[in-house]
Amino acid sequence: MASVTDGKTGIKDASDQNFDYMFKLLIIGNSSVGKTSFLFRYADDTFTPAFVSTVGIDFKVKTVYRHEKRVKLQIWDTAGQERYRTITTAYYRGAMGFILMYDITNEESFNAVQDWYDTHYRYSFIYIYIIYISHKPDVDEDRALTIQKSEILSSNIRFDFFEASAKENISVRQAFERLVDAICDKMSDSLDTDPSMLGASKNTRLSDTPPLLQQNCSC
């Protein structure tokens, strides 16, 4: 799945390393909440109702322009099954932002949010930022979680919250833009006290796609 898409022109360019910042972002949450669909909607502006479930981690790369800066995003799609969390924890290191997703039709995925939050807190870079995504409002008739419950969670942990739909393309771009802006703000603050952070962010190389196993199920 690894690919590179220029967020301004839509042109794929795997060799382009001309950027101001590079941020590693992770989409985390239980299996089948729609992480892969969300990533494809943002990176490629496509939607597929069912994917082969991701086991392990894969990524896409997208270049965006925020506040006159060219930002290269390496966005990782992680497996959500409990038995694979030991695989994904190694990839938390170096991440600067997270999309933490749950499915409004699946209360179990909401109840797991605290566990996902605790895991990222143990393994993540100090400047991380989280956006909470309540996914699939397009199937509101099957809703198991109220908006108010999601807002309370976001308020308690003090990170932004979006109800978003990859299927209907609702709030997908806005969620990523908010995440990137928040990280840029943190980077600007840190550069005031430690200019070496800029060199570190520019010189970070994209790693090769890790090998994946696959199994047939929707994700």
From TrEMBL:
<dbReference type="Pfam" id="PF00071">
    <property type="entry name" value="Ras"/>
</dbReference>
<comment type="similarity">
    <text>Belongs to the small GTPase superfamily. Rab family.</text>
</comment>
<dbReference type="InterPro" id="IPR005225">
    <property type="entry name" value="Small_GTP-bd"/>
</dbReference>
<dbReference type="GO" id="GO:0003925">
    <property type="term" value="F:G protein activity"/>
</dbReference>
<keyword id="KW-0449">Lipoprotein</keyword>
<dbReference type="GO" id="GO:0005525">
    <property type="term" value="F:GTP binding"/>
</dbReference>
<keyword id="KW-0547">Nucleotide-binding</keyword>
<dbReference type="InterPro" id="IPR050305">
    <property type="entry name" value="Small_GTPase_Rab"/>
</dbReference>
<dbReference type="GO" id="GO:0016020">
    <property type="term" value="C:membrane"/>
</dbReference>
<dbReference type="InterPro" id="IPR001806">
    <property type="entry name" value="Small_GTPase"/>
</dbReference>
<keyword id="KW-0378">Hydrolase</keyword>
<keyword id="KW-0342">GTP-binding</keyword>
<keyword id="KW-0636">Prenylation</keyword>
<protein>
    <recommendedName>
        <fullName>small monomeric GTPase</fullName>
        <ecNumber>3.6.5.2</ecNumber>
    </recommendedName>
</protein>
<dbReference type="InterPro" id="IPR027417">
    <property type="entry name" value="P-loop_NTPase"/>
</dbReference>
